[in-house]
Amino acid sequence: MTAEHPKDGKKAPPRPSGSAESIAFLLLAGVAVGLAFGAGVDWVFGTFPLFVGIGVFIGFGLALYAIYLETK
């Protein structure tokens, strides 16, 4: 994916680093990874839904931190 250049030879303005797509992806991925990790731990120890909930909250928190780092 390259930025298209205008006809006058000037470079196109850079895309903002905190675009909506990347923020949505980080939130979705953080929750999904936390959910999967928690489900795996619950499957091993037979404690469903304890670690699923913990994993979702940790994943969401880490996703918010990643968004903070990206937009800083």
Descriptive overview:
By secondary structure, the protein is an all-alpha fold. The protein has a domain at 30-71. It contains two helices and no strands. It has helices spanning 20-45, 50-71. It starts with 19 loop residues before the first helix and ends with a helix. The model has no long low-confidence stretch (mean pLDDT 87).
Tally of DSSP helical segments: 2
- Approximate shape: rod-shaped
Q: CA-to-CA gap between the ends?
A: 24 Å
Average pLDDT for all residues: 87
- Would you report the number of β strands? 0
Helix content: 55-70%
H/E order of the elements?
Answer: HH
Strand content: under 5%
Please outline the helices and strands:
Elements lengths: L19 H26 L4 H22 L1
Using brief descriptors, characterize the structure shown.
72 residues, mainly alpha, 2 helices, 67% helix, rod-shaped
In short:
This protein has 72 residues and is an all-alpha fold. The chain has a domain of 42 residues. Helices cover 67% and strands 0% of the residues.
